[in-house]
Amino acid sequence: MLALQRAPIRRAGFDQSSEATVADVMAADVTVVSPGTSLHTAARLLLAQGLPALPVVDSTGGVVGVLSEHDLTARLAPRRARPWWHLLVDADQLACEYRKATGLTVEEMMTHPPVTVSPSASLAAAIRLFDDPAVDLVSVVLAGRLVGALGRRHLVERLSTAPASAIRRSDAEIVAEMQDRMAQEAWISKPYPTVEACGGIVTLWGLVGGDAEKAALATMARSIPGCKAVTDRLIARGAIYRYHETI
User: 29-61 pLDDT, tens per residue?
Assistant: First the structure.
């Protein structure tokens, strides 16, 4: 019986573009388990791999689920007693919980269906899959077969190695992008703050709703490619009220 296998992945043939893709950051050599693998074996493999979950594949290489740290640690918690009337509304859920609490194989414990993504998908699109905190690992699938895995750690590694922006832009372009970004956000007070730029240094002027908005606007300006620094001349309305209360 197949207990485990390695999935060597070649990156040749993946779409290459200026935008980062899943193939650029995914783990290409992934330890996988089969549905029949014992939990003891799967737990040892999970610890050795250093990822929060293992893809579960069938005999054809298709991904059928993932076995995560959450799946395994949930087994350690005592089973909760449920009132008898729960059987009237969530009998299927109780049956699934029992199977997870007492199962001996990966198939009985794994989370399914798995969350999958194409290796050519943009990294920006893949990041959205992790908005759900229950998603620990995204399986990368090409032509129905597992070709890699993507975890939050890979995204953090990408961030840690990203070079500082060296984009050169005119002051007018920086101001225009800041104005476009403000127009897309509903939390910014109107009238919008005045934006000026000189030599890549952005200055913000105006009255805003509060300290949180003030700080967020400075962050927005600082994140614009080509911005070298931000001079914050914004005034929060709360500061005006506090000033008048003291005089």
Answer: 899 999 999 999 999 999 998 889 999 999 988
Helix (H, G, I), strand (E, B) or coil at 75: coil
Neighbours of 108 (CB within 10 A): 15
Sign of CA dihedral 218, 219, 223, 229: positive
Other beta carbons less than 10 A from residue 88's beta carbon: 8
Q: Nearest Cα to 139, choosing from 32, 11, 24, 6?
A: 32
Q: What's the predicted TM-score (pTM) here? A: 0.65
Query: 222 phi and psi, to 5 degrees?
Result: -65, -25
On the CB side of 108, how many CA atoms lie within 13 Å of its CA?
15
**Cα–Cα distance, 15 to 17 (Å, whole number):** 7
Beta bridge partners of 203: 196, 231
Q: How confident is the model at residue 17 (pLDDT cuts 50, 70, 90)?
A: very low
CA distance 183 to 115: 34
Beta strands in the chain (DSSP E): 4-8, 29-33, 53-57, 63-68, 116-117, 137-142, 145-151, 194-198, 201-208, 229-236
